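Work Package 4 report. The design task specified in the project plan requires that, given a folded chain encoded as structure tokens, an amino acid be chosen for each position. We show below one input record used in the internal validation round.
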């Protein structure tokens, strides 16, 4: 991949404040169990950006190129409300990387396979959050960026080209359609989603795409307890259960985030997902 040195230098310069304050993540003990009780198992608090420190300089360059492309295209089309480089790093990149420490921990225990070669789908990826960042951070993974809006898919193709990623691909479509398509149904080890819908709708979008024994991961804000509780029935109907609610501490002004991890141990009944639009209109 040819990287323009001037672009990289400019981007790194404008990210200067971001790089200075990277906290260290220390592995925290988890208690692995699934639950249907009223109290969700929570982990000790994870620290964000742990993964950023471990990225190679090429991966950091790829993130900068991606963010730069996002900000450039955002001037012409509506991709994100965030318009400053540091803000994109703190809000979107941090949120994406925050998924990794708790996910890594759970995946090892529950999926009983190596964390390499993970086949992941990002449902409603929009401009590529968190899917693009995960594809950069985890080059051994196959990442599918699922997005229903054509213009966003065009940007995603551009972002993949500009970063030189060979492990990410774009699929344009609705989660409800893909969930009933044999080429995608129950084909993924992990489905992730951020800022797409509330949990009980997300469960119907994401879990039909996850193989039995795989995980559904939702990136949420600081206090998702009620939302998760309301989604318990929908998650169970899809053949899954809430495995862990993981608070992730943040040093950014946006405060604590939460990563919710569900484990699928039964096949999803054929009638789910329902027709496009129905999950959002009539949440389970
Ligand atoms: C608010 S944006 C969030 C994008 C990104 N995940 C993020 O965190 O910035 C939600 C995106 O999900 C897409 N979306 C919503 N419902 C969808 C569905 N049923 N299937 C596929 N994409 C969907 C929308 O087109 C939109 O781009």
């Amino acid at each position: 991949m040819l990287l323009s040195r001037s672009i990289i230098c400019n981007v790194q310069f404008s990210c200067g404040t971001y790089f200075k304050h990277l906290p260290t993540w220390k592995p925290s003990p988890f208690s692995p169990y699934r639950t249907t009780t009223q109290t969700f198992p929570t982990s000790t608090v994870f620290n964000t950006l742990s993964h950023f420190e471990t990225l190679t300089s090429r991966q950091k360059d790829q993130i900068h190129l991606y963010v730069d492309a996002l900000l450039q295209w955002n001037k012409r089309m509506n991709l994100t409300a965030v318009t400053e480089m540091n803000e994109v790093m703190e809000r979107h990149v941090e949120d994406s990387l925050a998924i990794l420490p708790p996910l890594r921990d759970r995946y090892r225990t529950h999926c009983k396979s190596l964390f390499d070669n993970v086949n992941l789908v990002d449902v409603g990826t929009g401009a590529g959050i968190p899917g693009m960042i995960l594809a950069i951070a985890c080059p051994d993974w196959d990442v599918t960026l699922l997005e229903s809006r054509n213009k966003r898919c065009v940007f995603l193709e551009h972002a993949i080209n500009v970063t030189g990623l060979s492990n990410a691909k774009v699929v344009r479509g609705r989660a409800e359609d893909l969930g009933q398509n044999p080429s995608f149904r129950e084909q993924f080890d992990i489905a992730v989603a951020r800022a797409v819908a509330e949990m009980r709708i997300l469960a119907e979008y994401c879990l039909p795409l996850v193989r039995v024994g795989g995980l559904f991961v939702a990136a949420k804000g600081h206090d998702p307890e009620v939302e998760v509780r309301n989604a318990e029935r929908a998650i169970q109907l899809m053949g899954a259960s809430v495995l862990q609610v993981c608070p992730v501490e943040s040093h950014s002004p946006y405060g604590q985030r939460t990563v919710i991890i569900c484990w699928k141990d039964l096949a999803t009944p054929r009638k789910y997902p329902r027709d496009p639009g129905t999950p959002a209109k009539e949440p389970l």
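The CA atoms of residues 5 and 145 lie 28 Å apart. Validation will be extended to a larger panel in the next phase.
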